[in-house]
Amino acid sequence: MATHGLLSADAANRICCSVIDEVVVTNTVPHDAQKRACGKIRTVDISLLIAESIRRIHNNESMSYLFMNVPKDD
């Protein structure tokens, strides 16, 4: 898992040629070109988590709720 997967120019090729099964990155940085070049790159959308975090901070609400109620993607 790479939270901010800053993939260099040859990263997609290196990942595809490696024994790595999958590289999971968040959508905080665009990876469209790299994903087209390599099927081993998966992007997880965290936009709702960021939006809810901002809302909770703005309203002085607990952030711990976000960590206790994380949906599990099987």
UniProtKB/TrEMBL annotation:
SUPFAM superfamilies: PRTase-like. InterPro entries: PRTase-like, Rib-P_diPkinase. It comes from the Eukaryota. One of its GO terms (biological process) is purine nucleotide biosynthetic process. One of its GO terms (cellular component) is ribose phosphate diphosphokinase complex. GO terms for molecular function: ATP binding; magnesium ion binding; ribose phosphate diphosphokinase activity. Belongs to the ribose-phosphate pyrophosphokinase family. This is Ribose-phosphate pyrophosphokinase N-terminal domain-containing protein. It comes from Protopolystoma xenopodis.
